[in-house]
TrEMBL record:
<dbReference type="InterPro" id="IPR050796">
    <property type="entry name" value="SCF_F-box_component"/>
</dbReference>
<dbReference type="InterPro" id="IPR001810">
    <property type="entry name" value="F-box_dom"/>
</dbReference>
<dbReference type="Pfam" id="PF00646">
    <property type="entry name" value="F-box"/>
</dbReference>
<feature type="domain" description="F-box protein At3g26010-like beta-propeller">
    <location>
        <begin position="106"/>
        <end position="302"/>
    </location>
</feature>
<dbReference type="InterPro" id="IPR056592">
    <property type="entry name" value="Beta-prop_At3g26010-like"/>
</dbReference>
<dbReference type="InterPro" id="IPR036047">
    <property type="entry name" value="F-box-like_dom_sf"/>
</dbReference>
<feature type="domain" description="F-box">
    <location>
        <begin position="28"/>
        <end position="57"/>
    </location>
</feature>
<dbReference type="Pfam" id="PF24750">
    <property type="entry name" value="b-prop_At3g26010-like"/>
</dbReference>
<protein>
    <recommendedName>
        <fullName>F-box domain-containing protein</fullName>
    </recommendedName>
</protein>
Length: 368
């Protein structure tokens, strides 16, 4: 009988060993997959966790591991930005107005935790910053005047072997020397210098600020006449492709490695994916389609304030799994797989015209 109690003692020891290993697993292999706001909270768990989370090595690993959308920056011209979090308990920033920057700014673009902002006064300098850590870098003055509403794309892809945040900023701007021409100037953090591309596009006309995205080394911007300007950074070539000519304010994004467009047509939210970027150069009799509709979701009267009346709806963000849509008073989350629509947050004061674009943000600890 006594011998039967011995295994229980060993079992207790084993359970304790498992418990200790679980704590180690969480600390070493789970924390890095959490957003920055949660990690700041977890620094208070114990001294060990605080030391781990505060190291540059951990910040680097977190920037590699956590890539999920945390929320959107919304900003009306001339006013401080606001931040709409997808989960306020886990993801957020201490100062959504970005008061740590030397001057009031306009947020232009983002990429994996970094923001590109432009000063509203003075030399209208560009700043790259991390709003979580309040770190920022002022970029040197570009060679050309990019105007008051530059169309920029920020490209930052964290690298496992590179602890320095290397990024690229691509700006498409109206040419001062060529009528109806759009030129491109590119900043590289590797050289800390701007380079003017020899490419000039005469078909793009006026670009929509804050509409830029990158997909597979190619930058895209919407134009006010319904087209999309594409600039291939590898080939240094540009072209204008036909957009989705639907009513409502559309939004560019990436779906399963392809350029997509989220837009509202009547009472339907549609996500279209580009299928053949070269179809607009084919002969007139060609049946090749440029866009394929992948998702259609019917909008309820709730999004139209229950009245069913026409309201300018804006697609603020779209990706493979979900889209965010600004209704009359609220922001809604559309699950593109289940087609479920959920209320997210009450909409702040926001520009609902074509200039009103949400800037996506990832809650990252990336260091500058």
């Amino acid at each position: 009988m006594e011998s039967g109690k011995i295994p229980n003692k060993f079992l207790g020891v084993r359970n304790n060993k498992i418990y200790m290993d679980l704590k180690l697993i969480i600390r070493e292999h789970a924390l890095q997959f959490l957003p920055a706001k949660s990690l700041f909270k977890f620094r208070g768990v114990c001294r060990d966790w605080k030391l781990i989370i505060s190291t540059p090595f951990f910040a680097h690993n977190q920037s590699l591991s956590f890539r999920s959308l945390s929320g959107l920056f919304l900003q009306t011209s001339g006013t401080p930005p606001t931040f709409v979090s997808l989960d306020p308990n886990s993801a957020g920033i201490p100062d959504p107005a970005l008061k740590f920057l030397p001057a009031p700014t306009n947020i232009l673009a983002s990429s994996n935790g970094l923001l590109c902002c432009q000063a509203l006064t003075g030399d209208r300098a560009y700043y790259i910053c991390n709003p979580v850590t309040s770190q920022f870098k002022k970029l040197p003055k570009p060679s050309f005047d990019h105007g008051r509403d530059p169309a920029v794309v920020l490209i930052f892809n964290p690298s496992l072997l590179n602890f320095v945040a290397e990024f690229t900023l691509v700006c498409a701007f109206r040419s001062a020397d060529f009528d109806d021409g759009t030129e491109f100037e590119i900043y590289s953090s590797k050289t800390d210098a701007w380079t003017v591309s020899g490419e000039i596009n005469f078909a793009a006309k006026k670009l929509v600020p804050k509409s830029g995205v990158t997909v597979n080394d190619c930058a895209y911007w919407q134009t006010y006449n319904g087209g999309i300007l594409a600039f291939d950074l590898v080939k240094n070539r540009s072209q204008v492709i036909h957009g989705c000519h639907y009513g409502g304010a559309g939004c560019l994004g990436e779906m399963n490695g392809k350029l997509c467009n989220g837009h509202v047509n009547g009472h339907t939210m549609i996500v279209s994916v580009i299928s053949n970027i070269y179809s607009n150069t084919m002969q007139m009799s060609s049946h090749a389609r440029l866009w394929d509709d992948k998702v259609r979701i019917q909008l309820s009267n709730e999004i139209f304030d229950g009245s069913g009346n026409d309201v300018l709806l804006s697609v603020l963000y779209v990706e493979s799994d979900f889209a965010l849509v600004l209704g009359k008073r609220n922001v809604y989350r559309f699950d593109l797989k289940t087609k479920e629509v959920k209320f997210l947050v009450e909409a702040p004061q926001f520009d609902r015209s074509g200039n009103g674009k949400g800037i996506p943000y990832v809650n990252s600890l990336v260091a500058l």
